[in-house]
Specification:
Radius of gyration: 21 Å
Number of strands: 0
Structural class: mainly alpha
Order of helices and strands: HHHHHHHHHHHHHH
Largest sheet: none
Length: about 350
């Protein structure tokens, strides 16, 4: 490596680290704003006092029982969906790889709707029925993933085939969801629609802790295999020539990413475009080197969802908009802009 090339590499790495630092600062600011802003504003001195266990009972209750778990839930959900999307796009070598385009979100929605009809959530099902809905959503999401991975294991499907299979499964589960709604009662339809909207406010501390642990472990797994993913970025033939077991890396990466996605969706409902847009934003700014792409995607995805959830809570206060609707409204035009104006990075 020449001195000029080495200097260029160091400068590129400094720019990437700088992006991570700036993104981290923006996430911290967005989190503080999420804790302070709401139907009852909490001044910054009172906010920090409540966070440390002091201040008034009202402010402590607002921060610890409502806004802090909601903000941390948005961080975990946004970061998890983003890193899962980044991993899917890499292992499939397709910019459209994401939880929604692979049918996982639609399958989870179908599972939740089926649980609502069978257990009576929103009618007479009680707490047990309510707790079974996330389980059904998670199992349905993993079932969809299992069908895609079975194609790889037994039919040696290509990444293109996996994407097309995901699209087909998404259409199938969406049709099933529509059919369930057709036969459901008004109360059951309302419960199904509420679940599919996507809402961070439905998570409590237990769900937040589970999501943070799973997302952290999955991010660590992806970072550990970052070199393999960099090799995949260079092409399947190149990766095989470097000794990478392409099929194994692809299956394990898809399995971990799908597990994270299904878990998050089972807790918060369907939240679209975060897993698709956040990795694209990062690639557009700092490129696709995995050791920077993965953590940056987590931070950007977390920031996007924290900001979106704060806007959803406050823009029409006291009415709280479903954050899943807001991310779709904002994410679709942003993604179109990235596609039409962004430079090519695949």
């Amino acid at each position: 490596m020449t001195e000029t090339t080495a200097a260029a590499v160091r400068e590129r790495d400094r720019r990437r680290v700088g992006f991570l630092v700036v993104a981290g600062v923006l996430l911290a600011l967005a989190t503080v704003a999420a804790l302070a802003i709401g139907s009852v504003s909490v001044p910054l001195p009172d906010l920090f006092a409540a966070a440390l266990g002091g201040g008034s009972d009202l402010h402590r209750s607002i921060v610890w029982q409502n806004r802090l778990p909601r903000a941390l839930g948005a961080i975990a959900a946004g970061g998890g969906l983003a890193v899962a999307g980044a991993a899917m796009q890499t292992v499939l070598r397709n910019p459209l790889g994401a939880p929604y385009t692979l049918g996982i979100s639609q399958a989870a929605a179908f599972g939740a709707a089926l649980s609502v009809l069978l257990t009576g959530v929103g009618t007479s099902g009680g707490p047990l029925a309510t707790s079974l809905t996330p389980v059904a959503a998670f199992l349905a999401g993993m079932f969809s993933t299992g069908m895609i991975l079975a194609l790889v294991t037994y039919r040696r499907a290509t990444p293109e085939t996996m994407i097309l299979t995901g699209v087909a499964l998404g259409s199938l589960f969406q049709a099933g969801l529509t059919l369930l709604q057709y036969f459901a009662s008004d109360t059951e339809v309302a419960a199904i629609v509420y679940w599919t909207f996507g809402d961070i406010g439905r998570v409590g501390w237990p769900q937040v802790v589970v999501m943070l642990v799973v997302v952290s472990a999955a991010t660590g797994y992806f970072l550990r295999h970052g070199w393999d993913y960099d090799a995949l970025d260079a092409g399947t033939a190149t990766a095989k020539s470097l000794g990478v077991s392409v099929e194994s890396v692809r299956v394990r990466g898809m399995a971990v990413a799908s597990f994270v996605t299904a878990l998050i969706i089972s807790f918060v409902g369907v939240i679209g475009f975060v897993g698709l847009v956040a990795p694209h934003v990062v690639r557009l700014v700092i490129g696709g080197t995995e050791r920077y792409l993965l953590p940056a995607s987590v931070v950007v995805g977390a920031t996007l969802l924290v900001v979106a959830d704060t806007v959803a809570r406050t823009v029409l206060s006291p009415i709280v908009l479903p954050v899943g609707v807001l991310t779709s409204l904002l994410g679709a035009p942003l993604f179109l802009y990235l596609v039409t104006e962004g430079r090519e990075y695949w």
